[in-house]
Write a structure and sequence with these properties.
The chain is α/β, with parallel strands linked by helices. Helices cover 21% and strands 21% of the residues.
Length: 124
């Protein structure tokens, strides 16, 4: 497993700092690069947690592409996830894009139909 994380760390290094990219249309099996982003914040968090300490010395930036991220559970971070004052972990939107974190689910309009059952109408 360490070889995988080391490879992710090397691929994520850009200009001395580790970067991971996340997109609602991404894939958690991807590299987390700009060209092959992760799909979830959880996957990005797991990737930066797996970096060797030396790879985090310049900080970590997680870039969120625009779109809606439907969170299935609480997105938990711990104190070490924040990095340090000199090498912080920063989660930010890609300039000009608007990521939206949602704790709910989007329900398709087609899933709603008028109530026709008189018993249900009587209860409502």
């Amino acid at each position: 497993m360490m070889k995988f994380w080391t490879a992710v760390g090397i691929m994520a290094m850009t200009a001395g700092a580790a970067e991971f990219w996340v997109s609602p249309s991404g894939d958690d099996g991807a590299r987390g690069s700009q060209a092959a982003p992760f799909r979830t914040l959880e996957r990005a968090r797991d990737a930066w947690r797996g970096l060797p300490q030396a790879a985090r010395q310049e900080g970590v930036t997680v870039w969120l592409r625009g779109g809606t991220y439907e969170l299935a559970s609480t997105f938990a971070l711990t104190e070490p996830d924040s990095g340090t004052a000199a090498a912080p972990t920063v989660i930010r939107a890609v300039p000009g894009e608007r990521p939206r974190l949602s704790g709910g689910r989007t329900l398709p309009a087609a899933g709603f139909v008028p109530v026709a059952d008189p018993r249900v109408i009587a209860r409502v």
